[in-house]
Design brief:
ten-stranded antiparallel barrel, elongated, Lipocalin, single chain
Length: 282
């Protein structure tokens, strides 16, 4: 898998380096909403859907949050057409989800109103290049991300609190299209490779003799992201943006851990988040 990631990064950089660039005039940075220091804050809302396979249980609900990002491009003030982009991102979201599963004897069980909290932080570094006669700014990037989800399912009968943590490696491409009228469009596609995951299950809350809290390691998984951001501009300055997006995670069976006489495994699971950001750049 690491070899595939290395090949992907090399191909992305080679693609940007091989694109034709027109150097007769420097691109108008205002047409791309570019600044050396670019901050943004957004409110997000998304539909959360989590499923364990094969048809073991699921959770879904509407989540609300706030997100912020900072992008640094030193090459803008140095008037270079090819240089680096650095970005820091963070988000925090809260909401209530509904549980749909079954007891060990197969009896169906549902519960509404479980509190979920998500925290995520990412650092990215990319290579910028103007392509297609300076009508598109393309960026190939890599980085490091950390995502944590706290699921307070201990409120329901037979439930327990859970914490999911992912350390992952994002690889992506971003394309900023030269603005038309007062709108600027940015398209993004990203692959996430799970480096290491950990699922903490507070099973001691079940009050079963010999059964304690368990931490399962997750080593196999990947994620995908896609978004289309639309910035509204007045006199070359971005005023607000709308960004519909989709985020997906697929994580395989965890390693087996023991607690007393019990063998505990976190099963294969899928997480989907489909939503929209509405924010203000400054």
């Amino acid at each position: 898998m690491l070899r595939k990631i290395q090949i992907t990064v090399v191909l992305m950089i080679a693609l940007l380096s091989s694109c034709s660039v027109v150097q007769a005039e420097s691109p108008d940075f205002a047409d791309f909403g570019l600044k050396t220091h670019d901050f943004g804050i957004a409110f997000e809302v998304y539909e959360f859907d989590y499923e364990e396979e094969p048809d073991l249980m699921g959770e879904n609900g509407t989540i609300f949050g706030i997100a912020g990002e900072y992008t640094f491009r030193d090459w803008i003030k140095n008037s270079s057409c090819l240089d680096m982009m650095f970005r820091a991102e963070a988000r925090c979201a809260f909401g209530k989800v509904d549980y749909d599963g079954a007891y060990q004897d197969g009896t169906p069980f549902s519960y509404s109103g479980i509190d979920d909290t998500t925290f995520e932080i990412r650092g990215l570094a990319g290579l910028d290049r103007f392509i297609l006669d300076d009508k598109v700014l393309a960026t190939a990037y890599i980085g490091l991300g950390f995502r944590q989800l706290d699921d307070n399912a201990g409120v329901m009968d037979g439930g327990y609190d859970r914490q999911s943590q992912y350390l992952y490696f994002p690889i992506g491409c971003e394309f900023v299209l030269q603005s038309q009228n007062n709108w600027l469009c940015t398209l993004n596609a990203e692959y996430n490779h799970l480096i290491n995951g950990r699922q903490t299950s507070e099973l001691s809350a079940l009050d079963i003799s010999g059964l304690g809290d368990v931490k399962n390691k997750q080593k196999h998984g990947n994620g995908f992201r896609g978004s289309a951001r639309f910035d509204y501009k007045v006199d070359g300055k971005k005023k607000f943006f709308i960004e519909p997006y989709v985020r997906l995670w697929r994580v395989g069976d965890s390693e087996v851990e023991t607690s007393g006489i019990y063998a505990i495994m976190e099963p294969k699971n899928t997480t989907r988040e489909i939503g929209v950001n509405v924010g203000i750049p400054f």
